[in-house]
Specification:
The protein is α/β, with parallel strands linked by helices. It has helices spanning 3-17, 22-38, 40-56, 61-67, 71-86, 125-136, 150-166, 185-191, 206-215, 238-250, 269-280, 290-296, 330-340, 353-362; strands at residues 94-99, 105-112, 115-120, 140-144, 176-178, 199-203, 228-232, 259-265, 285-288, 305-307, 321-327, 345-349, 367-370, 390-391, 399-400, 407-414.
């Protein structure tokens, strides 16, 4: 990969795009929507090739589900772009403004970051989401997806570029580039592109994120892996808790916002765990500590229940597997989560308002839920249309990242001859 020429093209695209107003950017995105619709069958056929290859290579079905596109997901991709089109353009927004004592006018305004790179795994919808958010916020983007989704990403990128070209002067085709090589040296080049790429975002599993964070010489916005917990408090509605546990584990187990560990107060464990096991309906392998195992062994299929190892806690299964542990109250639950979590999404089920607020104030995570599934940690669900990922760090951005996460600010100062 010729990183220098690619980044030079993207920088030119970013500089052009930064001058486009909302109307121009929206027209270009509307043309992209039409192009993706026109290329629907080509995109679905390309995705079918990726899915077939993934299964041949032994990919788990929960991860195949993340990779596969169907009519519902295709429609969702289109809807995400349309929501972004209808969002307010953040560029030029005045964050703050005041007059200095010497008469100078000072304004802090929102501007694009410039050239953004995203290194991501599997999910082809990320290709469109990342491009759309970057384009609307005035940034050029370098996409480096995984080999498992290469055919899908190639077809989607070609449709995007075709749409940008059809938008005439309102489109900036140089604002997007897909790295089609599967050579891992490409990642090294991206991470070392000092002065060429303004920020890189890793989106995927722990291994990918760790590689980027430890090796990048350019700024990183870390989108963390999702070791998410569900704590069932002694004051919980147990039927609600079982329903939420089912949704948070089963609906899409390969997603980063699916729960990996269930903590339950010992006082209500005997009442709750059979309800949870029944809700899982034999679909989930439960790795239980000794206390919970003794309760569950009479309520769970033997092949779906094993003794948990210490390594099962703080592990991202991304599958129909959950670790279960009993705790002595909310303080132990909070300490356990803050020790084993990845600061992504954590949940408490309780009818005790005081405990709920204690949990939300003391848990160190981007999103902290009371009586709701962690599966809502998503840019689309938060009203952003799409997301670049879920940031688990505390600087620049945290939680689901929408348009504003790809902006920074500059100060504009007007004077009339002031000197210091």
């Amino acid at each position: 990969m010729d990183i220098d020429s690619i980044c030079k093209k993207l920088r030119t695209g970013a500089q052009t795009l930064a001058l486009h107003n909302a109307a121009k950017k929206n027209h270009a995105l509307e043309s992209v929507v039409q192009s993706i619709k026109n290329n629907r069958q080509k995109i679905l056929d390309a995705n079918a090739k990726d899915v077939e290859s993934a299964r041949k290579n032994g990919m788990t079905e929960s991860l195949v589900e993340r990779l596969a596109l169907d009519e519902k997901k295709f429609k969702s991709i289109i809807e995400s772009i349309e929501i972004i089109i209808n969002q307010t353009d953040p560029i030029g927004e005045e964050i703050a403004g005041w007059n200095a004592p010497n008469g100078m006018s000072i304004r802090q305004t929102r501007v694009p970051l410039g050239v953004v790179a995203i290194i991501y795994e599997s999910r082809p919808n990320v290709t469109v989401d990342a491009f759309s958010l970057a384009y609307k916020s005035g940034n050029a983007i370098l996409l480096r997806g995984s080999s498992s989704a290469l055919e899908s990403n190639r077809a989607l990128t070609q449709a995007i570029i075709e749409g940008l070209k059809s938008a005439g002067d309102d489109g900036v085709p140089d604002a997007i580039h897909l790295c089609e090589s599967t050579d891992h040296s490409d990642v090294t080049q991206i991470l070392g592109a000092v002065g060429k790429i303004d920020v890189v975002l890793p989106r995927g599993g722990q291994k990918l994120i760790k590689t980027v964070v430890e090796n990048a010489k350019i700024p990183v916005i870390e989108t963390g892996s999702g070791i998410c917990h569900l704590y069932v408090d002694s004051d919980a509605d147990l039927d609600m808790a079982a329903k939420i546990a089912e949704n948070a584990k089963i609906q899409r187990p390969g997603a980063c916002n699916a729960i990996e560990t269930v903590l339950v107060d010992k006082k209500i464990a005997a009442d709750f765990l059979p309800k949870m096991s029944s809700a899982f309906n034999g679909k989930v392998l439960i790795k239980a500590d000794d206390f919970c195992y003794q309760i569950l062994e009479n309520h769970t299929q033997s092949e779906k229940l094993v003794h948990a190892q210490e390594s099962d806690f703080g592990f991202e299964f991304l599958d129909f597997i959950v670790a279960v542990k009993a705790v002595d109250g909310i303080d132990e639950a909070i300490d356990f989560i803050n020790t084993h979590g990845t600061k992504h999404s954590e949940t408490i089920i309780t009818n005790n308002r005081s405990k709920a607020r204690t949990f939300q104030s003391r848990i160190d995570a981007a999103c902290v839920y009371v009586n709701a599934s962690s599966r809502f940690t998503d840019g689309g669900e938060f009203g952003f249309g799409a997301e670049l990922g879920i940031s688990t760090q505390k600087l620049h951005a945290r939680g689901p990242m929408g348009i504003k996460a790809l902006t920074t600010t500059k100060f504009l100062i007007d004077g009339d001859g002031q000197t210091r």
